[in-house]
Design brief:
about 250 residues; about 45% helix; seven-stranded parallel sheet
Length: about 250
Amino acid sequence: MTRLDGRVAIVTGGGQGIGYGVATCLARAGANVVVNDTVPERITRAVTDIEALGVQALGVQASVTQAGDIDRLAQETLSRFGKIDILVNNAGVVVVKSITEQSEADWDKVLSVNLKGVFLCCHRVVQEMIKQKRGAIVNIASIAAFHYTVPHIPYAASKAGVVALTRDLAYEVARFGVRVNAIAPGPIETPMMGTALTPQQREAYARNIPLGRLGQPQDIGEAAAFLASDAASYITGATLPVSGGTDLRVTTS
């Protein structure tokens, strides 16, 4: 039930971190994967690794903040594979500063990638899924949508927006056979974590995670593969925390 053989998945921000973990987990489940990123070197590495797993891969350099780029991403996917079965909206950025240090430019950057980007990708891809009368969208949110973690108000606001977008879109498109869910990761060892947390904060997180370890990108990837699969065919509009229990007791000190 969790196999994805023959399905076509787009993963935004798929060249590193959580996106790379998601892309490779989908590939291991049998999906052909379209890797979107803004850095060519990351795309090349991910495509090579995915093809080594025995499925097809396509790399597309595009910015999720630009509607024209997203249309090109969808068109290149359709030209290569003829359909889009799965969309994982993972691309994201974070700026860690107190509210008095956050600038309007910081706010615009974070909201543009993390929330506008999800909207643009959903807006374009869901049109294809409606035509097919099936599809699964998985949006990567964060436990920051629900709990204080570190000072990053634009990021937290953007991820809360992703949760709300997920819920409303799920309701709107359910009648077309399209499911929309979200994952709220806790602390995951990625390049973004290195920019968001000091070494002391990383240690504090590790001490307070009930399951006793920091998360890995594959942890999110396995959850995404489940939500995209027929095993989750009766789940839509949900946000699944994947945090090792961190959301039960969040602290950085």
